[in-house]
Amino acid sequence: MSVERAPAVAGTFYPGNGGELRSAVEGFLTKARIRAKRDGATGHPKALIVLHAGYVYIGAVAASAYARLAACPDAIERAESMVASFSQPPRINPITANLRIAPLFPVTL
């Protein structure tokens, strides 16, 4: 059975329009790559913890982490996601839908 979850805060903490969101993400990543090159960032991260608090608050920091991963795609062995809900009490498994509808594209879980 397919359970779909629509974005709860699209247009609030990040753009609700796919084109605007793509542009914002690409901007964050471009600036992160420029900073990494300028600062001489090298090596592959062993692990990353990337916060999620809305693009206006944490977009540049998250982009810095993801830009480091993009530079070494063959080094990635495993990816895990811990998702918190800001509108519901914490649960053991917060992912209850198997298809999240995101402004850029659907995400199948």
Q: Write down the domain tally.
A: 1
Query: How far is the N terminus from the C terminus?
Result: 13 Å
Average pLDDT:
75
Instruction: Please count the helical segments.
Output: 2
Write down the Rg: 15 Å
Strand content: 5-15%
Physical arrangement of strands within the biggest beta sheet = 1-2-3
Principal-axis shape: globular
**What are the segments in which pLDDT stays under 50 over at least 5 consecutive residues?**
none
Question: Got a strand count?
Answer: 3
Q: Which class best fits the helix and strand makeup? A: mainly alpha
Helix-strand pattern: EHHEE
Q: Major β-sheet, in short?
A: 3 strands, mixed
Considering DSSP H and I runs of 4 or more, what fraction of the residues is helical?
25-40%
In short:
With 109 residues, this protein is mostly helical. The chain is 35% helix and 7% strand. The chain has a three-stranded mixed β-sheet, with no helix packed on it.
